[in-house]
């Protein structure tokens, strides 16, 4: 390292992470062939490729595991109504209802096994990243997801009891699952963006989720149709390993790591509690105002994400069942159509920024989501189902605004704790959504397959009212 490089490094070290990385770009490593893992290899390389790779694996995992459970349970019960289409055309077939119910119950058990552990690990790991750096938890999350894929492959190839899937979910939950990866990615973007550009930068990350979902939907559907369920799981493992390699070799750090920072410390939970109890500020009138907004935005985020997860969990099962009876190809196309909303919402958000305040953008997303869910609840043909997907193309404008609003309410040194809190809320969303939606779906099959979608549409009226209240509150506060 020459003298000028040493001087630049000392200048960076003497500044806070926010001052150091306040621009939208990270400092590049010297152009050598032996860049250390702690530096970026290319100036424009950010966290987005790692997010896409990991979420492709997650997007493949969900539908493939549900279809494997369906086929495995069908074999165990000697149910052969799905040899060509995925279900029996006779909607009153009692054996088909048993297969649907058991599949939903296994999905619930597997989800609870992982996300109950991530409830403890996400706040711990996310807050730890404020002092230890973002890269360690990005690596840890990918390792946990890779171990889960390995366990699933063993179960499928050796036809082990389905209870062994719980082992994979436990290993994944101990590493924070992909919720901690999302927390690290959004914290990373908050580190390198300013308040003005943050909403759109967060929306780009949300769009990366859509791109990965589309890729996994198309690839998974076609591959499963041609080669069965097991082979595509090798791509799940490969994506996690590739994402970990990218983080290790190419991704720069945005936080100056503290070598003395301990992972297992109650201090990390206390920092989150301080953020939530004070709004990140002192307990004066301004702090109370911040705290109220923070909690209300958290509540809106919780309801919206719970509805989104509960619907996503049931789409594949709903499409496999009569009267739709979709096969792997249509399920893959449907998954791609569902994730296209991330891209269209990003474009819609960019256009709406020129003429609407952020609260109105959320309301547009709510109308799109409610309309789509109402169509899904009564969908009995493929055309109607895809109409619901088309109407829902703007429903992902809500979560980027919520994340950006929450990030702006926290201090730059609290971004990890903030997004760890958001990750914790999202883990709770998974538990609530998986428990309620799968149970409600199984309980209402006898009179209306889409009843869960109808309930979700009604539930979304609550955040609509909260956003209206917050908009009035902020207008009175900042006329």
List the helices and strands and how they pair.
Elements: H1 3-13, H2 17-20, H3 48-76, H4 94-132, H5 135-158, H6 165-174, H7 177-192, H8 198-227, H9 232-250, H10 266-278, H11 285-320, H12 328-352, H13 358-377, H14 382-391, H15 398-408, H16 415-444, H17 451-459, H18 461-477
Helix pairs in contact: 3-4, 3-5, 3-7, 3-8, 3-9, 4-6, 4-7, 4-10, 4-16, 5-6, 5-7, 5-9, 7-8, 7-16, 8-12, 8-15, 10-11, 10-16, 11-15, 11-16, 11-17, 11-18, 13-14, 13-15, 13-17, 13-18
Nutshell version of this structure?
With 479 residues, the chain is mainly α. The chain contains 18 helices and no strands.
CATH architecture of the largest domain: Up-down Bundle
Q: How many runs of DSSP E, i.e. beta strands?
A: 0
Q: What shape does the CA trace take?
A: globular
Classification by helices and strands: mainly alpha
CATH topology of the largest domain: Growth Hormone, Chain: A
Question: SSE order, as H and E?
Answer: HHHHHHHHHHHHHHHHHH
Radius of gyration: 23 Å
Distance between the termini: 53 Å
Helix content: over 70%
CATH superfamily of the largest domain: MFS general substrate transporter like domains
């Amino acid at each position: 390292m020459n003298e000028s490089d040493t001087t630049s490094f000392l200048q960076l070290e003497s500044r806070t992470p926010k001052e150091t990385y306040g621009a939208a770009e990270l400092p590049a490593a010297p152009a050598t062939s032996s860049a250390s893992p702690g530096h970026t290899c290319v100036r424009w390389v950010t966290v987005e490729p790692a997010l896409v790779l990991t979420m492709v694996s997650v997007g493949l995992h969900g539908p493939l595991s549900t279809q494997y459970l369906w086929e495995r349970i069908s074999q165990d019960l000697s149910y052969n109504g799905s040899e060509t289409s995925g279900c029996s055309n006779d909607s009153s077939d009692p054996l088909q209802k048993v297969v649907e119910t058991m599949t939903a119950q296994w999905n619930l058990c597997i989800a609870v096994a992982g996300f109950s552990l991530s409830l403890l690990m996400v706040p711990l790991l996310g807050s730890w990243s404020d002092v230890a750096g973002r890269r360690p938890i990005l690596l840890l999350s990918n390792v946990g997801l890779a171990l889960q894929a390995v366990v699933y492959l063993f179960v499928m190839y050796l036809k082990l009891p389905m209870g062994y899937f719980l082992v994979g979910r436990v290993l994944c939950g101990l590493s924070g699952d992909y919720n901690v990866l999302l927390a690290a990615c959004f914290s990373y973007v908050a580190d390198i963006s300013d308040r003005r550009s943050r909403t759109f930068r967060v929306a780009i990350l949300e769009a990366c989720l859509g791109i990965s979902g589309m890729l996994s939907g198309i690839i998974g559907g076609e591959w499963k149709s041609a080669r069965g369920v097991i082979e595509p799981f090798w791509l799940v493992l490969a994506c996690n390993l590739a994402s970990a390699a990218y983080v290790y070799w190419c991704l720069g750090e945005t936080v100056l790591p503290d070598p003395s920072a301990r992972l297992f410390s109650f201090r990390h939970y206390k920092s989150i509690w301080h953020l939530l109890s004070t709004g990140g500020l002192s307990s004066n009138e301004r702090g109370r105002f911040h705290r109220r907004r923070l909690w209300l935005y958290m509540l809106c985020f919780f309801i919206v994400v719970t509805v989104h997860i509960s619907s996503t969990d049931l789409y594949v099962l709903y499409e496999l069942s009569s009267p739709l009876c979709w096969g792997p190809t249509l399920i893959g196309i449907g998954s791609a159509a569902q994730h296209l909303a991330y891209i269209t919402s990003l474009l819609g958000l960019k256009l709406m920024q020129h003429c609407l305040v952020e609260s109105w953008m959320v309301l547009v997303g709510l109308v799109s989501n409610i309309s789509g869910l109402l169509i899904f609840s009564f969908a009995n043909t493929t055309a109607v189902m895809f109409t619901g997907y088309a109407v829902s193309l703007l429903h992902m404008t809500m979560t980027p605004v919520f994340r950006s609003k929450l990030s702006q309410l926290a201090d730059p040194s609290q971004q990890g704790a903030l997004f760890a809190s958001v990750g914790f809320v999202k883990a709770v969303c998974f538990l609530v959504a998986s428990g309620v939606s799968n149970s409600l779906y199984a309980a209402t099959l006898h009179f209306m397959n889409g009843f869960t979608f109808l309930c979700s549409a009604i539930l979304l009226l609550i955040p609509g009212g909260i956003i209206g209240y917050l908009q009035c509150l902020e207008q009175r506060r900042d006329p």
